[in-house]
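This part of the workshop introduces the protein records we will be handling. Getting from the letters to the tokens is the skill we practise here. The record below serves as our worked example for the rest of this section.

…
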Amino acid sequence: MRRREFLGLAGATAAGWPLVVSAQQSALSVIGFLSSLARNERPNLVDAFRRGLNDIGYVEGRNVAIEYRFADNQYDRLPVLAADLVERKVAVIAATGGSNSILAAKAATTAIPVVFTFGGDPVREGYVASLNRPGGNITGVSFFNTVLSAKALELLHGLVPAPSVIGLMVNPRNRESESVLSDSQEAARKLGRELLVVKASTASDIDIAFASLRQRRAGGLLIGGDPFVTTRRQQIVALAARDAILVMYANRDFVDEGGLMSYGNDVADAYRRAALYVGRILKGERPSELPVDQATKFELLINLKTAKALGLTFPATLLARADEVIE
């Protein structure tokens, strides 16, 4: 072969390399990850999602790609972000960070499979036809944190001396808050406790909420499961310590930050399990035939260090019920 022909062939081959690489990249299955949160908020949840993908044989950048869309807690951005994922023809959408993400994905497509993580009852909200046979293009994981408010209030009730007011913090911009509010109010009536509802959807709202609790001399506070409120856990834990309010949280993230106690499910594990469903759909299963994965274990966590700082002694019966006690 002549030198000129060889160089021409080599040049043509080299020029073709980017096309080959591009073709390989475009062949990757693409997952749309839709979240109401900001990119840097609760990164453990995204890590758990990736871990679930790895468990079922998918590694980001190797045999699957992920298009991330974060709404930065601006829920009105979610429909546009969901529509963008549909336009990009992703294979599956993981709708995370609460009901607003699910609603946006549901409105954006009836063809692309959607896998949700949800703290409430997806049947009651109309996301699926039933837990066992979801139907349509939507299924997912429900950890039922929002429907645990009655039980959480009962546990808190046993620690807060009567007739002290017990507060309930909800995010009015989160649809799940409606069920938390109604369930908690019914439980408070049965317990004979006055429930002071405070609303917070911004950091300044949280400061105002605690001012209201101080004014009413609330002895306890129940924090409903809400993605935004959880991102403000450092602020809330600090204010609770300052005002010496006994607080029951919906997940362990608060207790890890120094919060008093929590009752709920492992949200990070729910994200991992949602990724398993995403992987099963990529392998060919239909969302309509994947039963909603339901949480079966709820954990009571108690922080004794925080209790000591508050001058609180937990009853031995309650300590015995705890799944984990932080010394």
Observations:
- Residues 316 and 322 are 10 Å apart (CA to CA).
- The first strand starts at residue 29 and ends at 35.
- The longest helix spans residues 3-26.
- Residues 1-25 have pLDDT under 50 and may be disordered.
